[in-house]
Amino acid sequence: MATDHTEAGTGPNPGDRGTARPVVRYGEPVLHRACAPVERYDDALAGLVEDMFASMYAANGVGLAANQIGVDARVFVLDCEDADGERTVAAVVNPVLILPPPPRELAVDDEGCLSVPGAFTETPRSATAAVEGFDPAGNPIRIEGTGTLARCLQHECDHLDGTVYVDRLPAKTRKRMLADAGLR
Ligand SMILES: [Zn+2]
């Protein structure tokens, strides 16, 4: 996910050992199909996660899914804040998104995506969200979020199912945004 503001990190970050790879744009088939579950928690996965952090930071993103660098694997990374300004930095493997039962509170806020560069649009999302999955070593993890973090969890899980956030917007809005981004 992208935001229209960036903040400088402090200290060393994950991704320092990784290589930033190009982010694929909306329209590339790898972004529009569900990703494959990760089967092995090995060095290759650890290397992928490092490259994903490096790619996300290089692009000033707050979240990145593996298929955004062309890799068919259910992994995302994020570095963003919740509604209280508390920062979460995490890599989640084989995530499962958990939303509150309806009727759920919606938050409408600007959302953007590194795969649709430069475009931001108000997008309704559940105001809270949780994800359960595994860290790159295979340990179970759970992340609960509000604010930007909740939005990011939903945005990245969407990516791994082949949905880009603009796919959730009215067709007219989506076409204009893709045209503005020079993609269609
Ligand atoms: Zn995105």
From TrEMBL:
GO terms for molecular function: metal ion binding; peptide deformylase activity. Pfam families: Pep_deformylase (PF01327). Residues 1-22 are annotated as: Disordered. The active site is at 156. The keyword ATP-binding does not apply. Binds 1 Fe(2+) ion. Its cofactor is Fe(2+). GO terms for biological process: translation. Fe cation binds at residues 113, 155, 159. Its EC number is 3.5.1.88. The keyword Ligase does not apply. It comes from the Bacteria. It catalyses: N-terminal N-formyl-L-methionyl-[peptide] + H2O = N-terminal L-methionyl-[peptide] + formate. Keywords: Hydrolase, Iron, Metal-binding, Protein biosynthesis. Removes the formyl group from the N-terminal Met of newly synthesized proteins. Requires at least a dipeptide for an efficient rate of reaction. N-terminal L-methionine is a prerequisite for activity but the enzyme has broad specificity at other positions. Belongs to the polypeptide deformylase family. This is Peptide deformylase.
